[in-house]
Amino acid sequence: MTAILLVLFQWSSSILITQRLVENLVLVDLYTFSTSSKIIYLAFSSLVISGILSILTYITQQILYSNEVKHSTNKIISFITYIFYFLLVFLGAMASFSAIWTKKRFGQAGIDEIVYTLSQPLAGADSSQIESFLFGPLLKSIFFSLLIFFITVLSIRIIKVIFMKSYQTRSDIKKNRLKIILKNTMLVVLGLGILGGGLFSGIKQFGYTEVKAYFFETSKLYETYYKDPASVNLEFPQKKRNLIYIYVESLESTYTSKELGGAEQDNLLPNLTSLASTAGTNFSNNDLIGGSQQVPGVGFTVGGMVAQSAGIPLKVSGGYNENEYGNTSNFMPGAYTLGDILEKEGYNQTLLLGSDASFSGRDKYYKQHGNYEIRDYNYAKEKKWIPEDYHVWWGYEDEKLFEFAQNTVTELASKDQPFNFTMLTADTHFPDGLMTDNTPKLYSEQYSNVIHFSDQMLGAFIQWIQQQSFYDNTTIVISGDHLSMDPNYFKNIESNYTRTVFNLFLNSAVDPKQAKNRTFTTMDLYPSTLAALGVKIPGNHLGLGTNLFSNEKTIPEEISLNEFSTELSRRSPYYEEKIMQGSDQLNSK
What we know:
The chain is of the alpha/beta class. It is built from 19 helices and 10 strands. Strands 1, 2, 3, 4, 5, 6, 7 and 8 form an 8-stranded mixed sheet that branches. A two-stranded antiparallel ribbon has the order 9-10. The protein is elongated, with a radius of gyration of 28 Å. Mean pLDDT is about 85; it is low at about 1-35, about 320-325 and about 585-589.
């Protein structure tokens, strides 16, 4: 009878807890999920909670009705030991399966990107990634943990049957207690061993050198090379130029044809490469069309945006607990960004994106550094640009984004202030990008079609801008936010090919001294953007970036790209306290 009551309690509790999770949206924002995704999530939640309650029910039954465990203290200790053992096994499985899933799904992502993403709330995230994690490493970890747990319990049962008997004398009871202690100790040791094995497997996926550098080594890179932009006396032209900065999701020079410097048989970026060859400047790592090298801390969207607008990577080492970026009121208070500079110069600044700006703290970054007006997915719903229940991909598709971009730029251009219009696309996000009914199907791979269509939309948007009266006094910067993380698309490119992030400057106020055969990163686009606006930069260095229009060497050109990457992988007390926390504490040391 008791067993039946426990089972009924388990199932009723799992339903009530699942309902409570849904009502309060504890884990994810279900509103952004499709109907099928909601059903999957609810079913998964019920399964997980039911499984956990099953374990608790089983352990409770075993302890309450075990002839071996008579003393109440021993019962409590045994109960806690079983729970602790299961948690150790689960954490070990999660460490291993999650690392394998991460490397397969995110490809180029380093430990910086992973730690940052894990620190963020799930609001605004793509539901397909959450589903992939739920039914990938999390579900595998649960099943693995349950399997190991029940194998362990079964083994203990068999050992009891073969080697143990009922004890009645005081001496026998003492022996029984010693065996209980021995059993509990062995469970903890075994659990710790499984946890250690899982951690070892997870670390192996990222590389011991990278993990060691990230957590245990420190760097003096900032003390040696960082130039605080707030301390530089920038000189703007008398007539300030407008800026249109377009972050294109995962835009690589790799997508051009081999003849042009890429890795594709066909050129997937005909519009951008035509502009680069005839009307603009493409800074390249070779003598053809190329781009910037990717280094630690810039290989994810918000990291790429910070790098290109502040000249620094985005990391969460050291002071992470006090500044979780998306979870805090202060986003990198010690940074002095492009937005801060242009706000001081009287620019009207707007950020347009078709996703939720709160994802990864992008809204806080742009509001706190430049007082941008944020026009994101939520703004579009509020202004009735899209229906209240509309949700595609990360929010709404780029076809709508470019339509809204034209309207927003027209609005900004009608005002007396110079403007900085920044936008972020999303259709080319991994995996495979977003195909719409209007995407031309020219290639066998979906991602190729999506990339080609993105180039087509960009070309049309640029052509529209060039036809407007404000264009003569407007500089356009087009750049990928980072290298693509698509796990399968790049498997067939030549092993010696270097993938780079695409960049293009149009209608710049200055010409480059040397645009080709440069070694640089997206952090160098920060001072280069200001130079393209006609701003004079004493020393041509801001943050860790160098003005590429000048003849000054970048930091990677000075100390080598490998050394620069290694130093960025390490912890920096200067970065953690001075930039991430905005503290002047180091000045007094």
